[in-house]
Every structure is written in structure tokens, then in C-alpha cells.
């Protein structure tokens, strides 16, 4: 029926007094009817008063403690009763027509739609997320995206429970990480949203909309029932990689993720978490490994865990060697031994739970982990 509400837009805020009003103003200007649910992560900066006074009168779920972006999304999911839900950062301001573009792209077989996120100066920040060969989720910044061969490849999927074995495609090894005379792998120097990779032109003869592996959780649309069916939101991640983990589970369950280029969003990025901070790197490094343990082929997950541990062990020795360009240790928080040891302790402490979750994800899967990896890793 005309005017029916199909989408609940979930805005997660924490200390968002400086920017959440702009977000809500932009939502109020959308031409597609929707419900707005703001999850306030126990802000103490006046955010609650701003939400109560906003003319759009959003529904507010105020939590008694900060459970992070992932935890807030999980709390919101239990309260959403519309067919679709959108994830939106509180420092994001969608352009007019954003929601309409997302909803129009949610065709049969598509479970999630990525927005085009832009920096305040208009340059592209993310047009979806690609899966790197070491299992990072990296924002796509190229204008040209590969089109989907997508679901047809995963139709030939290996059974999810099949034991790990050699694949036809050679995978990178951890040897460089264990050899202190070699350079550290450059992909370790940046994680998740700090990485940005252009993609090659689409292969000729392919058809369909540009299709990334996943989406940036700062602004995306998902089918509510599908999200619940694949296990919801990994609340324990706190923040970062909840989006790429979700994309993994959608792909394993045979669903597609597409980009809606007309769904434009101005995004400040990192207004709450300060990219480059110790917490940012800790969550990124930890959650990438947890995601791989939950979703990726066993050989990939074990390789990346071993590689992370080997680099951590090599760092103290590397700093004692004569400094050369190949031996230089990046000046980044995720190369601090203390932070990396904390990540390893947290990952190993969660290993039993991660393996239980892995089995549950495998039972729901219709595509093999290795088939998804071969299709998307490194594209």
C-alpha cells in the first residue's frame, strides 16, 4: 500500500551530540517512509536531550552501558518488525533518495545493499568491501567494480563440513612472517577501514550490477529475516568487522550483496572510535581473526592466526637488528607487542565459542567456505 513502511533505520550513537542531529535531519529529508530507531550507547554528553527534542521524534533505545556498534545493532535487531533494516552511523548524513536507492536495489536473491560512502569533500570512502587474500575486509575506493559472477560460482560449492585440503589456487604462506630477515607483510600495517583498494575493470561479458563481497556497516540495508536466519549480529565483536562477518555468513547461505551507487552518504568516519587509536587496532585485529575462525576455510583461519602470532614473536628480535628498509617496523599501534599479545589472548580465550559458532554457521550454509573464498578473495 502507498506509504507503507518497509525499513527501520537503526542509528547507533555514543557521545554523538556534535553530529547526530545532522544524521537525523538527513533521515527526515528522505522521500521513502521509514521508522527510525536510535540506540544510545549510554551517552553522557547531552545526546539523550537532543534525541528527545528532535522534530522527527525517533524511537530511542537507551542502553545502560556502552556495548559498541555491534552490540547496539544486536540489541536493535530484536526490536525491528519491518522487512528491512538499515544500519547507519551517527556521523553519517545520507543524501536525499538514499533509502529509495537502497530499497530499489534489494531485488530477489539480494540480502544486503551497500551504500556509496563519501568523505566530507566528496571523495569516495567506500563503495562496498572487498576480501583481501589475507582475510581483511577492505573498503573499495575505485569507481570501477567487478560485476557479479556471484551466485553461480557458489552453486558449485563444496560442502561446508568438508575437511580442509589443498586448493587449486595457491595461498600465501606465513613464511615471511617467521623469517626476521624479511620485510613484514604490508597488509598487517593497516586493517579494515584503514585499507583502501581499487578493483580492476569488470571482465567483459559479465552482466548485472556492481557486486562487492560485502558492505560497509556505516550505511547499508539488509533483509531482517535473512539477517536473523544467518545468526544476527556478532555482538561480542563490540565494533569493527561485524559487517564483513555478516557478509561472509550471507555469502555462505547463498545470498548476494550488491552496491547501490545512487545511495550516497556523507560520512565523517571515526567520530567515536578515532581510527589509528589503540582501541581501533585492537578491535580490528582481534575481530578479523575471530571472523576468519567463524567463517573462513580452516586452512585460511589457521594460517592467519599463525601468521599473526609469528609476527608478534618476531617483533622484539627485529627491533634489535640493524635498521634497514626491509627490517623497518611500521610505526602503528597494531605493531606494538603488548597490543598484539592482548589480541592473541582474547582470540584464544574465545576459541571454544568461535568453534561452536563456526559449526552453527556451517550447518546453515548452502555454499562451501572454500568456494566463497576462491570466488571473492583477492578480487
TrEMBL record:
Pfam families: Glycos_transf_2. Keywords: Glycosyltransferase, Transferase. Residues 8-123 form the Glycosyltransferase 2-like domain. One of its GO terms (molecular function) is glycosyltransferase activity. Residues 149-181 are annotated as: Disordered. Residues 166-181 have a biased composition (Low complexity). Pathway: Cell wall biogenesis; cell wall polysaccharide biosynthesis. InterPro entries: Glyco_trans_2-like, Nucleotide-diphossugar_trans. The keyword DNA-binding does not apply. The keyword Transferase applies. It comes from the Bacteria. Belongs to the glycosyltransferase 2 family. This is Glycosyltransferase 2-like domain-containing protein.
Amino acid at each position: 500500500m502507498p506509504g507503507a513502511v518497509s525499513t527501520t533505520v537503526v542509528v547507533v550513537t555514543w557521545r554523538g551530540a556534535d553530529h547526530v542531529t545532522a544524521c537525523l535531519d538527513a533521515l527526515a529529508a528522505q522521500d521513502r517512509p521509514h521508522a527510525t530507531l536510535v540506540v544510545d550507547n549510554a551517552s553522557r554528553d547531552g545526546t539523550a536531550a537532543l534525541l528527545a527534542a528532535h522534530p522527527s521524534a525517533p524511537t530511542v533505545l537507551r542502553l545502560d552501558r556502552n556495548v559498541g556498534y555491534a552490540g547496539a545493532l544486536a540489541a536493535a535487531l530484536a526490536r525491528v518488525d519491518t522487512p528491512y533494516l538499515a544500519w547507519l552511523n551517527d556521523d553519517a548524513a545520507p543524501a536525499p533518495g538514499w533509502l529509495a536507492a537502497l530499497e530499489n536495489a534489494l531485488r530477489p536473491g539480494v540480502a544486503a545493499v551497500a551504500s556509496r560512502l563519501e568523505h566530507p569533500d566528496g571523495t569516495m570512502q567506500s563503495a562496498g568491501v572487498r576480501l583481501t587474500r589475507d582475510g581483511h575486509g577492505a573498503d573499495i575506493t575505485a569507481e570501477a567494480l567487478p560485476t557479479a559472477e556471484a551466485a553461480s560460482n557458489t552453486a558449485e560449492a563444496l560442502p561446508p563440513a568438508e575437511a580442509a585440503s589443498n586448493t587449486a589456487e595457491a595461498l600465501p604462506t606465513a613464511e615471511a612472517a617467521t623469517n626476521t630477515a624479511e620485510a613484514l607483510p604490508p597488509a598487517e600495517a593497516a586493517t579494515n577501514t584503514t585499507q583502501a583498494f581499487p578493483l580492476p575493470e569488470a571482465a567483459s561479458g559479465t552482466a548485472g550490477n556492481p557486486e562487492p563481497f560485502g558492505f560497509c556497516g556505516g550505511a547499508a540495508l539488509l533483509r531482517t529475516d535473512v539477517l536473523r536466519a544467518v545468526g544476527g549480529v556478532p555482538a561480542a565483536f563490540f565494533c569493527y568487522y561485524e559487517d564483513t562477518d555478516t557478509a561472509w555468513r550471507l555469502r555462505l547461505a547463498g545470498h548476494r550483496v550488491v552496491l547501490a551507487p545512487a545511495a550516497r552518504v556523507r560520512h565523517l568516519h571515526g567520530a567515536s572510535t578515532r581510527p589509528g587509536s589503540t582501541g581501533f587496532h585492537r578491535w580490528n585485529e582481534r575481530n578479523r581473526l575471530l571472523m576468519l575462525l567463524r567463517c573462513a576455510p580452516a586452512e585460511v583461519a589457521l594460517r592467519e592466526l599463525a601468521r599473526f602470532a609469528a609476527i608478534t614473536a618476531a617483533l622484539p628480535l627485529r627491533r634489535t637488528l640493524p635498521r634497514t628498509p626491509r627490517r623497518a617496523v611500521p610505526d602503528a599501534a597494531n605493531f606494538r607487542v603488548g597490543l598484539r599479545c592482548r589480541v592473541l589472548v582474547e582470540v584464544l580465550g574465545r576459541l571454544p565459542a568461535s568453534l561452536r559458532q563456526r559449526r552453527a554457521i556451517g550447518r546453515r550454509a548452502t555454499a562451501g567456505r572454500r568456494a566463497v573464498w576462491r570466488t571473492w578473495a583477492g578480487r
